[in-house]
Amino acid sequence: MKNINKFAAVAFAFVASITASVTPALAGKDGSNAKIVSAVRSGSVDAIVAEVERAEALMCEECIQTITNLTEDNRFAVREVAAWWFAKRPQMRELMASQMIDDLGTGDSFHVRNAADFLGGVREYTALPALRTTITRSGLSSEAKLAIVRAVGFMAHLSGNSILQTAMGDADATVRAAAIVAWRDVLGQMSVTPIESRLGDSDAGVRAEAATVLGAYGDANVAATLEQLVVSDPDAFVRRNAAWALGKIGQASSRDALTKASEDKSGLVKLVAKAALSSLH
Question: What is the pTM of this model?
Fold first, then answer.
């Protein structure tokens, strides 16, 4: 959906809420639309973020279009601060969220990316069913799928688990790795079973993330697999993370593998393996 349509909706919300409970003397202190526009023209992410944050409580109709435009910026930090600004304005947030959910179903990868980042940024939990459907769409770019995973991670809700499980099977290793990290951060997460198979992933980064999460949860089911990885995986980061995970699981049966790993050619693996040995029961 084009920004002009979003702008029309949120501008109406602005007029409706202009009398909201913001102390006039303090509203938007030192902030202005002109300063935000100037920051945008400078091209500096830090400047844009600073000026949008400065306009946190600014009751500024002309700011709406400026910040709506920022929800489609190619830099995540800019999209993130734009969502944060709208989150401070409940009526505008609600209208924007509704239109962003529509974009998940009808937009191309560019608009799906932007919509997912907005919905995650404002913690719009009602968007989870739409995100669940969107992640299965064919032809969606990896960047868009990463944004969906990121949104689910921000919301950290158990209802997002099925989305993350889908992402763990994605063809792009960066999407798989991001889904593993997001799974770890879900509040009330009890099971890491879907991650266990990722220890055999073809990508070292995915295996390393899987080892870290499984170790953090103390998943003894994968101890034997981690023992194999710590002594034979070709990637040093995987061996290091496997050593750390074995230390967190703490089974005495891992002593032989960790003893061997303590002589690893990588100094980092050696240090972690030796520390893990001291954690065994």
Answer: 0.89
